[in-house]
């Protein structure tokens, strides 16, 4: 064997960052800057999908880039979804290996200020405040963002302060494409990999038109988390509630003994909500009820709330609290009627992910191979992956490195983007070994199974959970989802300012 060949083999075996760190930095940054400058804000008022033309243009651009990387089946599907497959390298073809997928979203929240987005690279961060030149009142400071202190020496990217940056989730897209490029260039052996870029995650409609059966992945990761090393396998359970107080209106001049003003009941209801269960009063694993919209007049007052809890029992208790408080309030105000409507939202993906422990083990090993210490952390909100997990594709969330998203001081360290690229490459590389390991542990369970686990269905329908079921073993090959087994997509995956408390997305 020649030295050149030895070197090539060695490059295939070593973690990619050791042999290609500088190249990754340049490529992922170049991609990200191009994508960030595009306006792909989604529009929650629009009825179409995607909800903005900018997303469709971006999707078109990405189809071209995926094809340029050799993913010849890359396509722009109806409603703005991009799907593509990276075929397996020789030795990993066929149907033996479950297809691993990666998902990022095309849209951003509204730009906040006046566009266009002008991404700025602050080279080799030296510490201290970064004043954003387009609006000097926007200052990125380590006092407010302590993780900046860990980024000394890294290039930092921000907007110019007049808009968001949109690293959520264009950093993820740039990272996935750069990982594919590296896999191909360096001849790293891998199984089939499915890619999906989805519209309208920020409006909560990202999974509305997703082709679960046609995409082809058996398991997936969204690349949409924040801090470097973060791995999310748990989300909130979500519900929304509308409380309507109905009174009786008349001319105030002759109102004595006649008028029943629903506004007072609404005010009392709001003030009686437990202050210690407000989103601004809790963090960690504690949920909340959060009134976000009040409309009304004497005749009728309407209050909209969102309810969030990591446990389904906790969510049910919050629903009960809203119902009982509304009824009690109505009793305090003779003549007032109260009605409460509850709408179920997304579900905590933890019970689904817990049945596939090799998924988390593979991601954690990938991180360790690139020198990261994995940080398992629940998301105080929902993800498209949570919805997808209940549609039959278990889907935890990997970090992309974005920080303080949905704000004009959003930022990202290029070093963290490099780590995300390396983690994706390593995850794809260790995937076959982890699948085989899971199958060795439970060889009898290798047969394909229905797409949606029974525990998932029972949780969606509110039946007792069967979270204690045995771990599942990777299914073989490309899967197809039985239409009858697929639960309906949750309607109210709302993020933005409410569903995910800041500084989480
Ligand atoms: Zn995101």
Automatic annotation (TrEMBL):
One term of GO molecular function: tripeptide aminopeptidase activity
InterPro entries in the record: ArgE/DapE_CS, Bact_exopeptidase_dim_dom, Peptidase_M20, Peptidase_M20_dimer, Peptidase_M20B
Entry keywords, A to Z: Aminopeptidase, Hydrolase, Metal-binding, Metalloprotease, Protease, Zinc
Biased composition annotated in UniProt, kind: Low complexity: 445-456
Chain residue ranges for the region called Disordered: 438-505
Domain of life (superkingdom): Bacteria
Family affiliation: Belongs to the peptidase M20B family.
Cofactors, names only: Zn(2+)
One Pfam family recorded for the sequence: M20_dimer
Name this protein carries in UniProt: Peptidase T
Residue ranges constituting the Peptidase M20 dimerisation domain according to the UniProt record: 234-313
Xref: PROSITE patterns: ARGE_DAPE_CPG2_2
GO biological process: peptide metabolic process; proteolysis
Entry keyword annotation includes Metal-binding: yes
Coiled coil: none
Membrane spanning residue stretches: none
Gene Ontology annotations for the cellular component aspect, listed alphabetically: cytosol
Its EC number(s): 3.4.11.4
EC main group: hydrolase
């Amino acid at each position: 064997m020649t030295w050149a060949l030895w070197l090539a083999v060695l490059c295939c075996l070593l973690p990619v960052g050791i042999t290609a760190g500088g190249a990754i930095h340049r490529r992922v940054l170049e991609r990200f800057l191009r994508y960030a400058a595009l306006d792909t804000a989604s529009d929650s008022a629009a009825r179409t999908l995607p909800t903005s033309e900018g997303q469709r243009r971006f999707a078109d651009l990405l189809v071209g880039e995926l094809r340029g990387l050799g993913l010849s089946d890359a396509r722009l599907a109806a409603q703005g979804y991009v799907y593509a497959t990276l075929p397996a390298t020789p030795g990993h073809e066929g149907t033996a290996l479950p297809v691993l997928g990666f998902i990022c979203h095309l849209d951003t929240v509204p730009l906040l200020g006046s566009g266009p987005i002008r991404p700025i690279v602050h080279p080799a961060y030296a510490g201290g405040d970064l004043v954003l030149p387009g609006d000097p009142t926007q200052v990125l400071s380590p006092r407010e963002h302590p993780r900046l202190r860990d980024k000394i020496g890294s290039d930092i990217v921000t907007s110019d302060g007049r808009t968001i940056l949109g690293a959520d989730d264009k950093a993820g897209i740039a990272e996935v494409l750069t990982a594919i490029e590296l896999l191909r260039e360096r001849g790293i052996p891998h199984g089939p990999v499915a890619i999906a870029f989805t519209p309208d995650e920020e409006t909560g409609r990202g999974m509305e038109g997703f082709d679960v059966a046609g995409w082809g992945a058996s398991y997936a990761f969204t690349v949409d988390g924040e801090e470097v090393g973060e791995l999310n396998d748990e989300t909130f359970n979500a519900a929304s509630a509308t409380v309507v107080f109905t009174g009786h209106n008349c001319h105030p001049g002759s109102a004595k003994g006649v008028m029943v003003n629903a506004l007072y009941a609404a005010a009392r209801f709001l003030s009686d909500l437990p202050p210690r269960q407000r989103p601004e009063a809790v963090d960690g694993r504690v949920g909340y009820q959060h009134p976000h919209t009040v409309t009304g007049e004497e005749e009728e007052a309407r209050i909209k709330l969102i309810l969030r809890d990591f446990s389904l029992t906790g969510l049910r208790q919050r629903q009960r609290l809203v119902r009982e408080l509304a009824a009690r309030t109505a009793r305090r105000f003779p003549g007032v009627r109260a009605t409460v409507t509850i709408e179920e939202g997304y579900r905590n993906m933890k019970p689904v992910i817990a049945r596939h422990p090799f998924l988390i083990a593979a991601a954690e090993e990938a991180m360790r191979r690139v020198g990261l210490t994995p940080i398992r952390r629940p998301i105080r909100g929902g993800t498209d992956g949570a919805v997808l997990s209940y549609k039959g594709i278990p889907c935890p969330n990997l970090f992309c490195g974005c920080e303080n998203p949905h704000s004009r001081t959003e930022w990202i360290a290029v070093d963290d983007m490099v780590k995300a690229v390396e983690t994706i490459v390593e995850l794809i590389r260790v995937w076959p070994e982890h699948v085989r390991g899971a199958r060795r542990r439970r060889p009898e369970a290798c047969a394909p199974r229905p797409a949606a686990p029974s525990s998932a269905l029972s949780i969606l329908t509110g039946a007792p959970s069967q979270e204690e079921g045995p771990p599942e073993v990777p299914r073989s090959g490309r899967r197809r989802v039985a239409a009858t087994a697929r639960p309906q997509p949750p309607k109210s995956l709302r993020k933005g300012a409410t569903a995910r408390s800041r500084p989480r997305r």
